[in-house]
Amino acid sequence: MKKAAVVGGGMAGLAAAYYLQRAAEAAGRPVQVVLFESDRRLGGKVRSVQSGPYRLEGGPDAVVRYKPWFLDLVRELGLEGEVVGTTPAKPAALIFKGGRGYPLPEGLNVVIPSRFGPLVRTPLLSPAGKLRAALDLFLPRGPEGDEPFGAFVQRRLGREVWDNLAAPLTGGIYGGDPYELSTLAAFPMLKELEAKNRSLILGSLRAMRRRRGSREGGSLFASLQGGLGRIVEAVTRAADRVDWRLGAPVERLEHHEGRWQLFGPWGTEGFDALVLAVPARVAGELLGPLDPELAAPLREIPYGDTATVTLAFDRSRFPEVVGHGVLVAAGEGTRARGFTWLSRKWTGRAPEDKLLVRAYFSGAGAGLDEKGLVDAARSDLERIVGPIPDHEAAWTYRWKAGMPQYTVGHLDRVRRIEAARGRWPGLELIGAAYRGVGLPEVVRDGRDAAARVLEHLAREP
């Protein structure tokens, strides 16, 4: 029987192991799949926690519906009845600027206004800022190549749109410095809008008309009733023939005559195919002795720290809040990127008389210790909503170098990685470092890698 190793038990590795077992069984080609995870738990940053009456997420708390791959897996696992959308809220979120919270304008296409009315009415932009944004309707197309996302948005829509809308929205997704994001890697659809329509606003108007009515249940975001961690339980249950090895780090690789030899404190074992679902820098360390040319671009992908702090409050003593949360505009001096009113965003996360508030940190702010993170969350929260009572419970999750940064040149780095990887048949590199940081993208990555591994194993004698 052929053997395949998956190194890394985050969402990408779980998807690869599940799809590889399922595809091998469907094709009548038995494959022994072994997944190695250095931690004592599976799921990576997907971490749902039930603590007394509270249900919270340590990492991501939602997926977007228009990227279907995560929800496709949910349906395959029989969890479609557990899919939930966010609770209705208008406004859905606020932007904190100049000591006040302002509603996020309706009708944004990613970060681009797609309706004139909300853009004209929003107090987040000055009259001069609105006129500058409207200038996008008349500007010529920009250059075809890559550019920092902050430069792209400011070139088309001006500094105020960047500082007060685009920066807080994208900083909460990618962490780090959103200005330095690669536009082609992180937001290729916006470069395409400009190329096809010249004006981002005109292109966004047309795109939103075509997409109108496509949201299921009226919600752009989705989760599971028991939290996103339910999918980790379901995958491990469904992939019952996968050999799950927890607390089993892989420390070294060798390659002889088409087979991979894995080494760790648990011993050594040989495999016919290898899927590395680990951070790019870890993949670079493992592959460096075998292929320095492949390891080099892997090591070049930068990573940033992220952290979340969730606080439980007596709802009757907490200031009145609206929507699902608040994002912080650029230059406001807070360490938290934003706050989610978790128990207002999702039903069943806390008793009716309690409020769960989650703070998100990235970059330098995420480097604080647990007490520092809680203190920073409380300080920033009081600045935004006013005096707050003592919290009744706190949960802190830190992800050191947990978020890959898609800086300018990212697509070139990925091309170099793929070109060098082609010299190693049966090797796959997957995860958030390459083709998308969201859960849907890494699930797609795992599914596609599983198909390629099965093809490789079928060709090998």
Question: Rough shape?
Answer: globular
Look at the helices and sheets and give the structural class: alpha+beta
Q: Gap between N and C termini, in Å?
A: 11 Å
By oligomeric state, this entry counts as single chain
Give the strand line-up of the largest sheet.
8-7-18-19-20-17-21
Mean of all residue-level pLDDT scores: 94
C-alpha Rg (nearest Å): 23 Å
Main sheet specs = 7 strands, mixed
Q: What is the number of beta strands?
A: 22
Number of helices: 16
Helix proportion of residues, in percent?
25-40%
Strand content: 15-25%
Uncertain segments are 213-217
What does this structure look like?
The chain has 461 residues and is of the alpha+beta class. It is built from 16 helices and 22 strands. The protein has helices spanning 11-27, 69-76, 116-121, 127-134, 149-157, 159-174, 183-186, 188-197, 200-211, 230-238, 280-287, 292-300, 342-345, 370-385, 410-421, 439-459; strands spanning 2-7, 31-37, 48-51, 54-57, 63-64, 83-85, 94-97, 100-103, 108-109, 112-113, 221-224, 243-246, 252-256, 259-264, 267-271, 273-276, 303-314, 325-328, 338-341, 354-362, 393-404, 427-429. The strands form six sheets. It has a seven-stranded mixed beta sheet with strand order 8-7-18-19-20-17-21, with helices on both faces. A five-stranded parallel beta sheet has the order 12-2-1-16-22, with helices on one face. Strand 13 (252-256) and strand 14 (259-264) form a beta hairpin. Helix 2 packs across helix 16 and helix 11 packs antiparallel against helix 12 (292-300). The longest helix has 21 residues, at 439-459. The chain is globular, with a radius of gyration of 23 Å. The N and C termini lie close together (11 Å).
